[in-house]
Amino acid sequence: MTQRQAILSLIVDLWGGMHPGAWRDENAPADPAMDLDRVIAMVKTAERGKFHTFFLADSLAWGIERDPEVVSRTSNVTRYEPFTLLSALAMVTEKIGLALTVSTTYTEPYNTARMLASLDYLSKGRAAWNIVTSNNEAEPNFNNYSLSREEKYERAAEFVEVARGLWDSLDDDALLRDKESGVFFDPAKSHFLNHVGKYFSVAGPFNIARPPQGHPIIAQAGASPAGLEFGTKNADVLFTYALDLEPAQAFYESVKKQVESQGRHRDDVKILSTLVLVLGRSQEEADARLAHLDSLADPQIGIERLKDIIGYDLTGYDLDGPVPEIPPTQTGSQSMQDAYLGPARAQNLTVRQLVQLAMRFDAVAMTPEAVADHIQERIETFAADGFNVTFGDAHGSLELFVDEVIPLLQERGVFHTDYEAATLRENLGLPRPVSRFAS
Q1: C-beta of residue 36 within 8 angstroms of C-beta of residue 29
Q2: Residue 327 and residue 409: Cα distance in Å, rounded?
Q3: Which of 107, 225, 350, 356 is the one with CA 20 to 30 A from 89?
């Protein structure tokens, strides 16, 4: 049996570090999010480490902290628009995949599909789309998009169907460019979509050739029943939250079986778990780094984040008392709520401890050896196909990961030593989709 190798994706939401105290560190850059030179340096560091993908998370509004008094204590105020930034990054990178977040609730499929196809060409086949249906924080900035969770997933499924149909508008060999005959493309190999559905009416055809990957990679996060139903049917990559080993193995096998029930091969969907790290060369150093970040963060940030994550306001509760019984969220992410309330119940956490988890975004302090052991164990025991890796701090941990964790994984045969192909789809070991119009 060939040894399994990990897929690694560097995810960035806050360039100043996922921990809300990171931007205050004395060594952190003054403007981590909008300093393009620093952004380029970080992504090129990930490419030097042979990360499969750089994944840009995004929010259409301020996000979880909507109160200006709370937001003012964070660095979550400014960020680049994803298509603009990743188009720039496509020009200064060569092999690393470029994944961006686009909402199916607050955009239209024709424009989104067109921009993704363009990015796939600019990057020579390295584009990926992280589909989100979005929480409600962006709604005041848009018109007539008030949808329930079920309607958002229903709209998202139709959105993807339209996007894929548009990408298939021209067959791979449609462009003849025959100067002698004067025929630029074969009209028999162009296709009108003529889609009429509940949410969209899109005639097509597309005015861009079929993307280099056929379809850009589609990624999706969400462990709720609706999210998994959507993801196992539509996604190439599924992002999951960190679980203990046995639950992670059970979840992995359950999702793979659900993929097969959709008529797909189980290996056609890659499952990436999340790792939020603060690294140190010793455990003492890592613990000290995380404790330092904790000391720089305002506790109110954690309470405000939890309000959105769990759909319940813990303001006024005894911080050292138990976490109260909380009803299922009707507006936020069910999988996110479960990810926080599950450990809180299992470990009898206090409100203060739960707030701390929310502030940290589950960041853990680890050594390079411990991280390599964790990744190797999860890959070899079929608990994940890889990891979405992000860092609590704005400096240091990424470099330590590339310089020390990656070589350990490569020595153990758990991670590739170089990119094996030109496109992201090939490097992920995923088949190129056949056009729906192919004979």
Answers
A1: no
A2: 42
A3: 107
Give the C-alpha separation, 293 to 385, whole Å.
Answer: 30
Query: In Å, how far are 15, 297, 377 from 390, measured between CA atoms?
Result: 10, 18, 19
- In angstroms, how far is CA 245 from the centroid of its own chain? 21
Q: What is the pLDDT along the chain (439 residues), one digit of tens a residue?
A: 468 999 999 998 777 788 888 888 888 878 777 889 989 999 999 999 999 999 998 877 765 556 677 777 777 677 889 999 999 999 999 999 999 999 998 899 999 999 999 999 999 999 999 999 876 666 667 776 678 878 888 999 999 999 999 999 999 999 999 999 999 999 999 999 999 999 999 999 999 999 999 999 999 987 778 889 999 999 999 999 878 899 999 999 999 999 999 999 999 999 999 999 999 999 999 999 999 998 888 878 888 888 878 888 888 898 889 999 888 877 667 777 888 888 888 899 998 888 888 887 778 999 999 999 999 999 999 999 999 999 999 778 999 999 999 999 999 999 999 999 999 999 999 999 999 998 6
The amino acid at 436: R
For the chain, the farthest-separated pair of C-alpha atoms sits apart, in whole angstroms, at: 81
Query: Is the distance from CB of 135 to CB of 332 less than 8 angstroms?
Result: yes
d(CA 201, CA 19): 43
d(CA 128, CA 430): 13
What's the residue count for the chain? Answer: 439
Q: Are 61 and 181 in contact (CB under 8 A)?
A: no
